[in-house]
Amino acid sequence: MKSKILTATLSLTIGLSGFTYTTASAETLKDIQQKQAENHIEKSKKNKQVKEVQGEQDQLLKELDKLEASLKKTTGDIQTKKNEIAETKANIEQLQNEIAVLEKRIEERDALLKNRVRNMYENGGAVKYLDVLLGSQGFGDFLDRMISLNIIAEQDKTILEEHKRDKEDVEKKKQQVESQLASLNSKLSDLNSLNSQLKDNKAKKNKIMKSLRSEEQHLHDDIGKLVEKDALLADQEKAIKAEIARAKKEAAERARREAAEKAAAAKRAAQQKEAAERAAREKAKQPSRHSSPAPAPAPAPAPEPSYEAPSAARSFIFPSAGYVTSQLGSRWNKFHAGIDIAKAGYVPIHASASGTVARSYTSSTYGNVVFLSHYIDGQLYTTVYAHMRDRAVSTGQTVSQGQTLGHMGSTGHSTGQHLHFELHKGPWNVNKTNAVNPLPYIQ
């Protein structure tokens, strides 16, 4: 009868324990699966944004190629115009030499004409011509004098016409050269302005391209973080299942141990009682010859060992030696989700409680980090050990309380050797909403 009661008690204990673990684990795993679904949606969104940004970059690259081609053409046109200007300046120099010759000829004619006019004024001008004709010795002499005077007149006329033509030619050449040079300078100015505008547009588009590439890099970083979160969630899911199985097995073993201890205690009590009763019966059968002291009372049965389930507040230990230099709370306008323990030297880091390694890897922020999953009294806890110098455990490994996980270091986002220790009541998440102050649990 007693054996049946003990068996029933053991079965009930194990059954209730399994119910607790199953219910709690289902809620925890459902929460992790929900986080994974949210991450998947976020990753899809980020990947879509990456494609959009890459599309914008492709379009911008085409525009930059066109700008580069325009700049190349404009640079060529500018060089052509510069060559034309150099050639025009050479022509101008040649024309200036020609103009100098013309101007010298004009100057000489001016002197000749001025001298002729002065002579005409001093000698009476046309009257002297008449005197020359009238002073002829005969008709033949008259004709000779007339022809000579006509020749002189024609020469004067030719000089005047050449003088006028040379002056007009000088002015025309000056205007032509100046107009050509002004036109070339104007075109060169326009080309320089266009070149400057194209360079400005190219600089602006390069700036946009740099911004797009930076945005793409940020998106890839975000996707990388989401992938890392997914991996951590998947590892946590495996670790939680393994930890629940370990905790259930441990609970069942504990329950069997309790039942066995209770059965042994009951058996000892029954044996003691039976021995006492037998001694009393034997004594009653013996004849009483003389008075004797009353028999000593039978020894009281040993008290049954009572089992007290481990409390979370007593199930964690300090993870390392050192001083707490920073506690949970706001720090540097950010939420500091744990405590910092600092100590110089080669300081070992220990598992704060028995559990399963959810993840052991190198993070960009945590540095060398180990995540442990613990199941205590049907409650999931997660501890985080960050900035370690090295790691001595691997993902999926079962560890015991006090086991060495690695050594204190300053990897990741760290300004000096210390252990950043976090305790989460539930699974770890990126927003660290489950973080609790570790001190009440480990003191």
UniProtKB/TrEMBL annotation:
**Which ranges are annotated Basic and acidic residues under compositional bias?**
274-285
Tell me the ranges covered by the Peptidoglycan hydrolase PcsB coiled-coil domain, including all copies.
99-173
Q: In the record, what terms sit under GO molecular function?
A: metalloendopeptidase activity
Residue ranges of domain M23ase beta-sheet core in the record: 334-432
What's the domain of life for this entry? Bacteria
User: Where is region (Disordered) located?
Assistant: 255-308
Cite the Gene3D superfamilies for this sequence: 6.10.250.3150, Glucose Permease (Domain IIA)
Keywords, ordered alphabetically: Coiled coil, Signal
Q: Does the keyword Coiled coil apply?
A: yes
* Residue ranges with Pro residues bias: 294-304
* Signal peptide boundaries: 1-26
Under which name does UniProt file this protein? Peptidoglycan DD-metalloendopeptidase family protein
Which taxonomic lineage is given here? Bacteria, Bacillati, Bacillota, Bacilli, Bacillales
